[in-house]
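hey all, quick one before standup. I had two proteins in the batch that finished overnight and I want to keep them in one place so we stop losing track of which output belongs to which input. First protein below, input sequence then structure tokens straight from the run.
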Amino acid sequence: MPYKAILVGAGGQGRAWCARFLPPNVADGLVDVVAAVDVNPDALVNAQEHLGLPAERCYTDMQRAFDDNPADFAIIVTPPAYHEAVVDMALAHDLHILSEKPIADTLEASVRIAHKVKQAGKKMGVTMSHRFDQDKTTLRRELRSGRNGAIDYLVCRFTCNMRNFGDWGAAFRHTMKDALMIEGSVHHLDILADLAGAKCDTIYAQTWNPRWGAYGGDSQGLVTMHFENGVRAFYEGAKTNAVGLNGWAQEYVRIECEHATLIMDRRRVERHPYEGGRIYKREGEGQEIPLLEQPKWMNTWLTELFVRWLDGGPAMETNIEDNLQSVALVFAAIESSRTGQPVQVQALLEQTRQQALG
């Protein structure tokens, strides 16, 4: 029997859930979307058109949607500032939760949510979709094959030309205080930590918004990270450049290992083995690693992994407790940029736990 789900948020990214992420899982008999909620009634057309929901099961009132429709889990696709309210509603109705990233718009709220979910004995997964894209999964598989030796350091570049208002989709991204970190870099810092294979202990960041960027907060950033296993990483994120060299789903990642240099650039993955001597090559001249093939990627795949977890299978890698590490990276980077000092990530997370939970 499919698991019954209530979708909260049907516009913006919610449209992608209606049109692309959920239908394959509905077709596979894993999910049955029994209701959809959005404060904008026009957005509910997406649920009707792509999920076949009748108008009477599309709501602008979240309380009514949850009261009227027994379900197994809620899917949260609202702006981050509203996540906690939806979590509270889901838990009040004894539901598990699958949520878009980040857990919430502050580290304090993220810690509270994780605590509430644990206390309720429920499962919550966060759709860190980018880590589960085809090119990143291929790179991760090659890195973990064992033939490349120890990791020295990593580099990630994400650069876009989205400097004008509305270029980055929903208006809230152009008005929020830390759009780059919370809406974009949350994925990239998560990917770097996953590839590094350890928790981040120290992060130093500089973020800003140039005068030509139509943003209410910082849209550019440079971040240095040090992990508990000694691996280092550097991240360049930009939303207001003149040209997008490595935009969304076209990122550049380079991993310097003991026996090889691995490069992912615009969805192509290559390996340059160490051959001894002073050898210089251009990027693009390495051994191409074929991209892995499977039916589902990103949020479609993560939804299936969540359902398998509900079935009693292994916990999602992006379960809420583990995903607190990703949220901590984002807010530690923001704190570092504001203070001009490196931030101890694990200490910040523990301090926030104590403040938020008492």
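OK second protein, same deal, sequence then tokens:
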Amino acid sequence: MTTTDSSTSLRPLRIGDIELEHPFVQAALSGYSDWPMRSLARSYGASYTVAEVMIDRFANEVKRPNKTAHHFHIEDEDHPVGAQLMGSDPEMFVPAAQRLVAAGFDVIDINFGCPVKTAMGGCRGGYHLGQPKVALEIIKRVRDSVPDETPVTVKMRRGIDDTEESRHNFFHILEQAYASGVSVITVHGRTVEQKYRGPSNWDFLREVKQVAGKHIVLGSGDLFSADACVEMLKQTGVDGVTIARGAIGNPWIFRQATELLFEQKTPVPPTIHEQRSALEMHLRLSQRFHDKTALGTIRKFGFKYARLHPESDALKKAFGKLRSLDDWSALLDQFYTQDEPGQFPIVDEAQT
């Protein structure tokens, strides 16, 4: 399908009965896609966001109110918003999914893609790609336990590794997941074994979409620019893309991708003052959400924002020393007072 000639070449992206404005969505990001990041992404054009992945046990046991209850925070303008669940025991997914629906999340996303050691060691995330029977039991239990109008989606990698058995397991889970009522499947073009090494395999994404046919497939992997987001649509035929690490400290990517796709508008990096406005908004949101730890949060994000600044290296060092609001004011005065063009981040995939 052609994606750059006109906006009519793309069918509307739907997650169940939820119709999205465009095909560029923010993925779940452990340690990052909290409410402030999701709120900022929506204000800069994301059509849909997914909260940080929650372990099923955590979703079941967290008490309200306490210092962890903020993971359930949703405001009216956040919709549509998804919650991502990860776990090992199919039975534990049921009450966790029900609690997330009761909290107001519009979509339940099941994580079969996380490649980190703690997830694999705990028989969670990408581990389930090696045991299709358990993966499909989890899907069925979640689909049966939440209201019919609540879409259930799945996040997968292209397999545990590059063996034929892994490939067979992937496509078996894919086909049976759709047959069980899953609305959307997101596929990351790397294997679990790869983690984040090497390029994401977009040829595999194209094959997945051909197999899925009319079913909705979202692509993931190596999306660090608006051009890459549109190019993935063009090369693979997927219905939409989920922007993950490429959105950390770069909320402009959603608007840039939308304007490039529908208006053929060449992306321009945000100016210094535009970057300052986003940072100030991010801190205000973090102060509401994280209170006393807001500065630590903005410091973490600041290292990513710094990639768009022409004095990137010096700015990263300044964010590393950020300990007080006085430091924050000094940082803004030093790096964000004079307006000038920004730069697109140069991202080494292996280093993110």
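Flagging for whoever picks this up: The longest helix spans residues 272-290. The chain has two domains: 16-263, 272-335.
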